[in-house]
């Protein structure tokens, strides 16, 4: 029997090393809280699929992370959220994109997986599906934070699409403390699951779909590993970074740690890629090539880590 | 200097009772598209341009399920999706929820070339199309009488009609003798069109792939299939270009197109072996097919479905258009 393991992230990017305490501490506390939540759930024997949904819901509800409440804004000033979830053993998966009112996109992705013959529902249809299933919804004001309104204004001033966590210029104006969120978990029986959720890019074109809802890019799980990625979506898509970890383990015989490091360094975008992964053996790894990645992990043998930058 | 190769498909899973004249029409269309691609390759047009050109032709012809002739949603409308990928720099573009753009593959190409993004969907994609000045038509343009009839039959059977989704023939029991093949619970006594795709390697060894579809007949509005998903329906790398067709959910779960390239990259095997491997080991219970080319000028078609509309040609003069095993 192997041990359980869990990892979660709140996004990666150019997180300034001098991030002020008032920004750093709430996020570290949120990571710790979510990790504790996940660990308790795993200890009480909850299936990893339930655990990753539970943890991502909590991250979505936290306004400091770019998913659910706190999602960054499109060029139109609206929120368009996306999420995906995958079960490793059955490879069943669900994904949603273009959500505007669903409080917890990850749970809608789970419903698509379990209640439809499809994998991926988008925009108005996904919203209608949410209503048909009585999923909790809210007005746009629930999702939109003052910080994100300022961030959009700033991004527009610089007339560019802003990557999650990319420090805008001038930097002091806002450190863009938002990012994709994700969770991966494995139980003692080797059951694996992965989940990822996001609001996308600041100032993204309305209708833009990133890597997060794409099975193989933002999220992947099979019998070997479970992976959730964060970073520059366009390049994560072309590298199918989450699937890359699984492919390297299966086809090249690499360990989880080596496969994940290779995927980030060779298949992902330079300087804007990170991922969390667990293996069926209960290993965990959280490589990233960006300045930082909000992350946390724990394993049954007592290892635990909460971090933001490379050395902390 | 390498040798070029091209393959096209019009979908996997074919009704064995498909009227002969429809079979002939399909073969003629595939042949015409191959010849179009061959002529372009002979005049040194790049792989990505040839892919777009050929898929446009398949979209414009109403025979297969893409562009005009797309399968209808539960509301009787058309919602198309497409993706394209250039293997040399692994650049890609994808669109979903397209309702008025005459050639979705060209919009996917524009997303790749003219937007900061890789994937645009629904009204955002339609807005982008208008800004780019692509050809726009009414949704009715895409709706054919054949498909209106198909939708009615699909609704009567109260089922989502998967494109050509049929159980393996060998499993047909005694009860099935009247209608030996069913399509997701519906007797496959009617002709259904399918996804289209094209893969090309040019003389420079550059690989590219494109896939376009109307999706499932009687699908829920907003359902996204494998065709627009990079890694699932379409993938291209330095080594190969791949376009998949069939049961979308099985293709997505396995990231089928990506896996052909991954098996080549990480197992170090050739194109044929990689295609055989993914068809055998990656589809679980799903039925699907794919076309693939390698940077060495090889071309391979693989499927576990009941036939696949396909055609391929190489610079050596090999050319084949086929439907069955």
From TrEMBL, chain A:
Q: What is its EC number?
A: 3.4.19.5
Q: Which GO terms describe its molecular function?
A: asparaginase activity; beta-aspartyl-peptidase activity
InterPro entries according to UniProt: Ntn_hydrolases_N, Peptidase_T2
Keyword Transmembrane recorded = no
Q: Cite the entry's keywords alphabetically.
A: Autocatalytic cleavage, Hydrolase, Protease
Among the GO biological process terms of this entry, one is: proteolysis
Report the active site residues: 180 (nucleophile)
The domain of life is Eukaryota
Q: Which reaction does it catalyse?
A: Cleavage of a beta-linked Asp residue from the N-terminus of a polypeptide
Specify which residues bind substrate according to the UniProt entry for this protein: 208-211, 230-233
Does Hydrolase count among this protein's keywords?
yes
Subunit structure of this chain's protein: Heterotetramer of two alpha and two beta chains arranged as a dimer of alpha/beta heterodimers.
Q: What is this protein called?
A: beta-aspartyl-peptidase
Automatic annotation (TrEMBL), chain B:
The active site consists of 195
The reaction(s) this protein catalyses: Cleavage of a beta-linked Asp residue from the N-terminus of a polypeptide
Molecular function GO terms recorded: asparaginase activity; beta-aspartyl-peptidase activity
Residues binding substrate: 223-226, 245-248
Q: Which CDD domains match?
A: Asparaginase_2
Q: Where is this site: Cleavage?
A: 194-195
UniProt keywords (A-Z) are: Autocatalytic cleavage, Hydrolase, Protease
EC numbers listed for it are: 3.4.19.5
Any one of the GO BP annotations: proteolysis
Question: Subunit structure, briefly?
Answer: Heterotetramer of two alpha and two beta chains arranged as a dimer of alpha/beta heterodimers.
Question: Can you say what this protein is called?
Answer: beta-aspartyl-peptidase
Organism source for this protein? Thlaspi arvense
